[in-house]
Amino acid sequence: MMCMLVHMTSRDAAATRLRILEQARRQFARHGYTAITVKGVADAAGVSPNLITRYFGGKEGLFLAATRVEIPVEDSFGGDRAELGARLSVSIVRRWSGESGDDPLLVLQRASGERPEAAEALAAFLDTHSLEPLHRYLRDSGLDDAEARRRAAAIDAFVLGVSTRRRVLRSELGDPAELQDWLSTVIQRLADG
């Protein structure tokens, strides 16, 4: 009986922690870091602010937990370079069209103007999970190292710029199919040089 109670309590704690993180991501994504309060997140999650302190240590810890990003970008780098734009655009538009409040990458983008550590975390994430894998892919597809690095940097800057314009500055994404076609064309041109 005691074992069952401990298991249910830990499961409830995990569910509560997840609910808090979901609300934190939504609020940080919509409003940035400064405007968000622990009490506001707690109220939205239906918990006591003390639980946020208990699970995350406060607002800073909550922000760090809410901005952990994992994107399987390598999935887009398999296959022929002639189809890179199409593969990347599908992945990008799917992510951007999803639940924006649950996207830790959007949270980091919005907070990067307010918090130097958010800007550094975003830059480090993009270097590790976007720029470098793209650079390796282009190099492995037959480009020399310097040219592969230039093209990867151009694609990375283009996608970040479009993301900033359409997501951070709160412009509408527009029609997802049209956006995907446009991104595919431009990314492919950049990949092809």
Automatic annotation (TrEMBL):
Domain HTH tetR-type: 14-74
Keywords: DNA-binding, Transcription, Transcription regulation
Domain of life according to the entry: Bacteria
Gene3D superfamilies associated with the record: Tetracycline Repressor, domain 2 (1.10.357.10)
Pfam families: TetR_C_16, TetR_N
Annotated region of DNA binding: 37-56
InterPro entries in the cross-refs: Homeodomain-like_sf (IPR009057), HTH-type_TetR-like_transc_reg (IPR050109), HTH_TetR (IPR001647), Tet_transcr_reg_TetR-rel_C_sf (IPR036271), TetR_C_16 (IPR041678)
The keyword Transport is assigned to this record: no
Organism (species): Amycolatopsis camponoti
Protein's recorded name: Transcriptional regulator
Molecular-function GO term, any one: DNA-binding transcription factor activity
